Sequence to fold (247 residues):
Amino acid sequence: MLVAAAACPCPPLLVPEVAAGAAPELDTARAACTDALGVLAAARPDLLVVVGPDAGTCDYPAGTPGSFRGFGVDLDVRLGDGGGDRDGDRDGAGDGVAGRELPYGLAVGAWLLGRTGWAGAPVEGRGVVESLAPDACLAEGRRLAGRADRVALLVMGDGSACRTLKAPGYLDERAAPFDAEIARALGTADTAALRALDAGLARELKVSGRVPWQVLAGAAEGAAGLSGALLHEDAPYGVGYMVATWS
Fold:
């Protein structure tokens, strides 16, 4: 059963080494993510599942490695190991699936967990493909919620990438209202609103979080009395970044 959840953005820029000189611009978002993970730890889950966008839908066991080398940074992470490895050190990478690395969203999640020294529960990862239909997302969430008596989710995903003229997807006037509804739904634990997100519109607005958020909605179906809190909402690079907790 789902006992807590945290929704965090997943841009590699959240990692200061990747952001370099622009790192201070996301300090507030990082602080909010740290607070959100504190809510997960306080729930004392038996299992934490990190859910994020992926090229396919598959599992990533504890110990699966990830890297930010594709962004020009010599920084490796491993899912659930409590920290990142530098200087090319891949010790323990074999704990994951041979030849498979974390997609960028789960790598950011692993970095957040390592940054806060997560030790609250075993950690697993679940990558979900962008094209997953809403009904399949809900079923996926229900399955994850049944993985243990007390399950927490760390849900990684961004809002629209079309918030400004300089955004990756250029300016789309529909982007800000779409993100505002997501922020409201995440901040109030409104599962009905998340279930109702328009998959086609989300794709047009380059929203990476639609599938993870609808997985969250499915996971929450059997949970009674969940309340939400919106900890952060901004679009510093024309991309919607939101941090919220459910407990």
